[in-house]
From TrEMBL:
Keywords: Signal, Transport. GO terms for cellular component: cell envelope. The lineage of its organism: Bacteria, Bacillati, Actinomycetota, Actinomycetes, Propionibacteriales. Its main location: other. Residues 1-30 form the signal peptide. Coiled coil: none annotated. InterPro entries: Bact_solute-bd_prot1, SBP. This is Carbohydrate ABC transporter substrate-binding protein.
Length: 434
């Protein structure tokens, strides 16, 4: 594949090029600059860094980001380890749990950041975010963004129907029952994405990934799991919580467009425009955000997370100072505005404030969504930990496909727990239940 020089110091390469060349690029020597692997969404950040630092050599490789449970990086790191060369200096992953296995044998890729990035910089990330990047007592990544779940609201349509925005899961479910009768075809959410359990079960404190050392608690019989599933089942059955992915053409056709039928949707911060504007083409002036839903009167309110993609520096890098400078810049400085704005809520607190200010004045929204996003940033439940095995394919295979066929979520919880347990054991964890 032909390389395309964008600025004097940056070359962008597709993954196919690296494969064709035997993966020889990366971690050569300090004078060679740095090699950075990114997904398409992070490419503008890498390009902007190179443009702002014309004296630095940056070789950017685009790849699938390890998204949706892919194992691209595991395969590549094993190849680089066997050959003793080819490791990139920096990797961005769409999978928040990738640093967990990257920091452990046999991969042994992720470098501790304590000596690379000052503590006064790293301390500006939320505690939950830092905890997700900490493996064996060492911080091995910086999250690019937060992906806290809020309740997305179609303000225009809710007002047209005379509905009040719910504040509890119970009120939300009751509204779903009402919508099914009064306005069939409209929805209050969806539960068919590979990450839907991170929205609906994580936020409701269902212990499916609770770590203590090398032990993981997987207990789908816990009341936090069963009561949530029982609440969701009638909505799945009546069509207001369909088991479809928001990224499918079928979903966009049924619920998107100028006559969109999305009334409410629990979802992460990046849904703001990536889903409603760009994927579903919901018109401007309709959507805003409300605080995460509360379970009854229980306190504190907790929510889930879908994303929080990490930047990881390679311990094999011959130019770790330059790699650290790159990661610091793209997470603490890069903040374009307008149509080129960052898609997600920045994890670095000072940058988040600037991003929120721009979002608040974005004419796409019917009302300012930023208070809810800011509130939710501190409400991500800490009892759902990141593990080395991919859980999203398990959810898709064992739950989503069966819900599409008509099975209830409640009936599928035991199967989900068993399959997650098998995945955990295969990854070397001891599994405990109730």
């Amino acid at each position: 594949m032909k390389q395309r020089r964008l600025w004097p110091a940056v070359v962008v390469t597709a993954l196919a090029f690296v494969s064709a060349c035997g993966g020889s690029s990366g971690s050569g020597s300090a004078k060679d600059g740095i090699t950075v692997w990114v997904d398409a969404a992070r490419l503008p950040a890498a390009q902007a860094y190179a443009k702002a630092h014309p004296d630095k050599k940056v070789h950017v490789v685009t790849f699938d980001g390890d998204g949706n449970g892919a194992t691209t990086l595991q395969t590549k790191i094993q190849l680089w380890n066997r050959s003793g060369k080819g490791w990139p200096d920096v990797i961005f992953s769409e999978q928040a749990n990738d640093p967990v296995w990257m920091a452990k044998a046999p991969f042994d890729f992720a470098a501790p950041l304590e000596k690379l990035i000052p503590e006064n910089v790293r301390s500006q990330w939320p505690q939950t975010s830092t905890a997700q990047c900490t493996v064996g007592g060492k911080q091995v990544c910086l999250q690019d963004n937060l992906a806290q779940v809020v309740l997305w609201v179609n303000k225009k349509q809710m007002e047209a129907f005379g509905y009040t925005v719910p504040t509890t899961w119970q009120d939300w479910a009751a509204l779903g029952e009402k919508v099914a009768k009064e306005h069939p075809g409209y929805i209050v959410g969806n539960i068919g994405d590979s990450f839907s359990h991170w929205i609906y079960l994580w936020g409701n404190q269902c212990p499916l990934q609770q770590l203590e050392g090398d032990k993981v608690k997987i207990d789908p019989t816990d009341d936090h799991c069963t009561r949530a599933a029982a609440l969701f089942d009638p909505l799945i059955k009546n069509g207001t919580l369909p088991p479809l992915s928001v990224f499918t053409p079928d979903f966009a056709k049924k619920y998107g467009g100028a006559q969109d039928k999305v009334l409410l949707m629990p979802g992460p911060s990046w849904y703001a425009q990536a889903v409603f504007d760009q994927a579903l083409h919901v018109p401007a002036g309709e959507m805003t955000a409300a605080n995460p839903l509360q379970w009854g009167s229980e306190s504190p309110v907790t929510t889930g997370q879908v994303g929080g993609g990490p930047w990881i520096i390679s311990k094999h890098s011959k130019n770790s100072a330059a790699a650290a400078d790159f990661v610091t810049w793209v997470t603490t400085v890069f903040n374009p505005t307008g149509k080129d704005a960052r898609p997600g809520y920045p994890a670095y607190a000072p940058l988040a404030e600037k991003w929120l200010q721009a979002l608040a004045s974005n004419p796409y929204f019917a009302a300012d969504p930023t208070p809810a996003l800011k509130t939710a940033a501190d409400q991500v439940w800490a009892g759902w930990n990141l593990v080395t095995y991919p859980d999203q394919p398990v959810w898709s295979d064992k739950v989503v496909t069966k819900m599409v066929a008509g099975d209830s979520l409640s009936s599928l919880l035991p199967t989900l727990g068993s399959a997650l347990g098998d995945a955990a054991k295969a990854a070397g964890y001891s599994v405990v239940g109730n």
